[in-house]
């Protein structure tokens, strides 16, 4: 989304900023106060059956007064914050369209039960991906959604390893990387090397007494000598400064904490790609794209209604216009047939002719004349059966 706020958002932010200062004060002190009074009352009422002495009666009446005062204070605080919060609600109603269901025709969706199931599944997957395992479990139970272990397993494993990495424990990640070495190499991943490097750096940071251990650990770099020659040279060079202290050497950048954040990112990216998972959950991607696309869709809806051409948008899996979502949402290449000016699909795939020009299969079929095909571009004559399907 662009960084520029619309007028509605500015109005909403200013109302919200008025609420913020009230938030920390609400509840905290008065509730603490009430609790301490209740504890005192409890200790008095523990003496059940015995008549209250004059002192205890006094304590009780003090307690009652205290409770009354505190509740009054809570009520007046609540009144203050309520008026500010209700202004936020009104700003939302005034500045934003509440009715957004109408942007897409009902025919696009499956049945209500199916929709609900898909949405629940998307939320559960998102929660697993975010590492909120207990919340995901709870949702599964309450929604009676049946998620099998095969689905959960990769998320559980990734989260266990990531949690260890956050604690700067390299063990589980290294074990995982070594057991998936071949497939990681096929992905051009440098995860295993980076993990060994961090372990080595940690040994260096412990000072000269770990020098021998560091030297012996360096043998782990051997398989990566060709791909990461320069980085290995840097690490070996840093050994010279071990006695002096790495933090005072030209190699102090090795101790930078950002390496830990980087390794978490590398691990998430490479492990997700190896396991065929997306780095971001489908729910967060859909939500982010929806935020960009919704204003455009609302405009289209308004235009369609104004011009009374409601039948225009009837395609189930295609929007009436193209909406630019930004590079982040580019996942695969698309090809539009230059003859029919339509995006190719599984039923009408792109076909490469022997001259090298590419058109869609429907266009090719239309261009066949007497069993021969003349390329509309070069114009080489050829046998239509020689065209080859292209997969992007
Ligand atoms: Zn051609």
Automatic annotation (TrEMBL):
Q: From which domain of life does this come?
A: Eukaryota
CDD domains, from UniProt?
A: dRING_RMD5B (cd16795)
The primary site where this protein sits is cytoplasm
Q: Which GO terms describe its biological process?
A: proteasome-mediated ubiquitin-dependent protein catabolic process
Looking at the record, the residues that make up the RING-Gid-type domain are 337-378
The record's GO CC annotations read:
cytoplasm; GID complex; nucleus
The UniProt keyword set, sorted, is: Cytoplasm, Metal-binding, Transferase, Zinc, Zinc-finger
Zinc fingers (RING-Gid-type) at which residues?
A: 337-378
List locations, semicolon-separated: Cytoplasm
Annotated CTLH domain residues: 154-211
Could you tell me one molecular function GO term of this UniProt entry?
A: ubiquitin protein ligase activity
* Functional description taken from the UniProt entry: Core component of the CTLH E3 ubiquitin-protein ligase complex that selectively accepts ubiquitin from UBE2H and mediates ubiquitination and subsequent proteasomal degradation of the transcription factor HBP1. MAEA and RMND5A are both required for catalytic activity of the CTLH E3 ubiquitin-protein ligase complex. Catalytic activity of the complex is required for normal cell proliferation. The CTLH E3 ubiquitin-protein ligase complex is not required for the degradation of enzymes involved in gluconeogenesis, such as FBP1.
Q: Which PANTHER family match?
A: E3 UBIQUITIN-PROTEIN TRANSFERASE RMND5B (PTHR12170:SF6), MACROPHAGE ERYTHROBLAST ATTACHER-RELATED (PTHR12170)
What binding partners and quaternary form does the record give? Identified in the CTLH complex that contains GID4, RANBP9 and/or RANBP10, MKLN1, MAEA, RMND5A (or alternatively its paralog RMND5B), GID8, ARMC8, WDR26 and YPEL5. Within this complex, MAEA, RMND5A (or alternatively its paralog RMND5B), GID8, WDR26, and RANBP9 and/or RANBP10 form the catalytic core, while GID4, MKLN1, ARMC8 and YPEL5 have ancillary roles.
What's the protein name? Answer: E3 ubiquitin-protein transferase RMND5B isoform X3
Species name: Acinonyx jubatus
Gene name? RMND5B
